[in-house]
Specification:
Layout (H helix, E strand, L loop, with lengths): L1 E8 L2 E12 L2 E10 L6 H34 L2 H22 L6 H10 L8 H19 L6 H12 L27 H18 L5 H15 L6 H15 L12 H14 L2 H21 L2
Antiparallel strand pairs: 1-2, 2-3
Length: 297
């Protein structure tokens, strides 16, 4: 989180922006002088400050990943690229649904989505939602317009129209809680105004924020609003990958096995209202997942 610090020297007062972060087990601090009076555009200055820090530490690496990823795709035959996307879709579908309680194993998900082999003695809901996620994933890849409420509602409806028709594509009108989390999602009356504010934020910042940071923030902001009765995590992770794919970056899967860390940073970020907690985790996860592209350069 970026904090405002005031220093008084003699009769003069000086204002600074300060950001603390953990690096190799130690707490490091960065600060920036912003004047003798507190500027009116303080939130904009905070965003520029944190972006400068992230740019120095992360963004060049992200761009290297994108460049090498794009170079590899150019020399990969179309059929092989399509197979790579299918493999990612299967793993992504397994993990995103498993995080939310699906009983299907990875092998069962793979056989279902790749060979249409339906698993025995598994919940029909889990099977239908895996098939729906596959369909929605490919629709997301083909969608060329900007992120909007219309596409969010449409994709949510497609995810759940065969299993939870009463909530599919509908903004919730009741209070919800997140099992095992101390964070309480917004009240029902707040949801639509928060969605509108989210979309205004996206429209204003989509061309000014690095795409990897934008993808992480879209995920965090949308899942924090929690606009639906169910499926908020799944739709948020889909929108995250919509942004990454739209800007030519490799898409990210959050493995079921890593769910404890994922839940922890989400909850801390939401309770403390500090986006940097989730962003730091997301950036490290992205670098770790795609370091092979950096090592090739």
């Amino acid at each position: 989180m970026v904090a405002i610090r005031k220093k008084t020297i003699g009769n003069n007062t000086y204002y600074y922006l300060e950001h603390s972060f953990r690096e190799k087990g130690k707490v490091e601090k960065k600060e920036k002088y912003i004047g003798k009076k507190l500027p009116k555009n303080i939130e904009e200055l905070k965003q520029h400050f944190i972006s400068e820090i992230y740019r120095d530490k992360w963004f060049d690496l992200f761009d290297e990943i994108k460049d090498e990823y794009s170079a590899q795709r150019e020399i990969t035959p179309l059929s092989a690229r399509e197979k790579e996307i299918e493999n990612f879709m299967i793993k992504f579908t397994y993990d995103t649904n498993r995080i939310e309680g699906s009983k299907l194993t990875f092998r069962e998900t793979s056989l279902l989505l790749e060979k249409s082999i339906t698993p025995n003695a598994k919940p029909v809901v889990d099977i239908k939602e895996a098939e729906a996620h596959r369909s929605v994933f490919y629709e997301m890849l083909k969608y060329e317009k900007e992120l909007s409420l219309k596409i969010i509602l449409y994709l949510h409806k497609k995810l759940f129209e065969n299993t939870k028709k009463d909530i599919a594509g509908k903004i919730r009108q009741h209070q919800v809680a997140i099992s095992g989390s101390k964070f309480m999602p917004p009240f029902p009356a707040e949801v639509y105004p928060l969605l509108m504010a989210f979309l205004r934020w996206y429209g204003k910042n989509k061309d000014n924020i690095h795409p990897v940071e934008l993808a992480a923030l879209v995920h965090l902001k949308l899942v924090t609003i929690h606009p639906f009765a169910d499926g908020n995590g799944r739709i948020s992770r889909l929108m995250m990958n919509f942004i990454l794919n739209k800007y030519g970056f490799p898409m990210l899967n959050i493995p079921y096995e890593k769910r404890a860390d994922y839940y922890r940073v989400l909850e801390r970020s939401q309770i403390k209202k500090d986006e940097s907690i989730f962003l730091q985790w997301f950036f490290k996860r992205y670098i770790k997942e795609f370091k092979r592209y950096i090592e090739r350069m």
